[in-house]
Design goal:
Maltose phosphorylase, domain 3; about 160 residues
């Protein structure tokens, strides 16, 4: 199962591990890695070879359009940010060891800094405040784009025992 499916199951740690495994930069962190990967570290490879002579080498870059889908799945799944018409929906599924994520969003001339504070389990919004005003949330949060400016703070998850 891929990382979008893991987020639907509330498995933020598994989703982040899978996302990191397909992220091309993680295949080129050292000079040795670059020599093995042999393709651009900023382009998602459709293939990573596993045969002994070419193990770890990337292939089929620039052909797939996969980078946009990978980014979208990460934003929508792990960060939980999805646009629905004139609203943004928030439903993050973070790894338990990510204590906080900060996003800067821009809509025309308006900006909004979104801070997601993780109590431990990484999913399920327990409280939300937009510019110090409490918002109603039920596990997820939907906010009109016209209202989204300033600072939005989301608290997710229950402490892990």
């Amino acid at each position: 199962m891929g990382y979008p499916g893991q987020t639907r199951l509330g498995q933020g740690a598994a989703a982040a591990r899978l996302f990191a495994s397909v992220n091309p930069i993680n295949h080129a962190l050292t000079a040795e890695d670059v020599g093995r990967y042999k393709v651009e570290p900023y382009v998602v490879a459709a293939d990573i070879y596993s045969t002994p002579l070419h193990e770890g080498r990337g292939g089929w870059t620039w052909y797939t359009g996969l980078a946009a889908w990978m980014l979208r799945a990460g934003i929508e799944g792990i960060l939980g940010l999805t646009r629905h018409g004139d609203h943004l929906q928030f439903n993050p599924c973070l790894p338990p060891d990510w204590p906080e994520v900060v996003l800067s969003l821009r809509f025309g001339q308006r900006t909004c800094q979104v801070t997601v504070r993780n109590a431990g389990s990484g999913h399920g919004i327990t409280s939300a405040r937009l510019n110090s005003r409490e918002l109603s949330c039920n596990g997820g949060l939907k906010v009109a784009l016209c209202d989204l400016s300033g600072e939005l703070v989301l608290h997710v998850g229950e402490p892990v025992a």
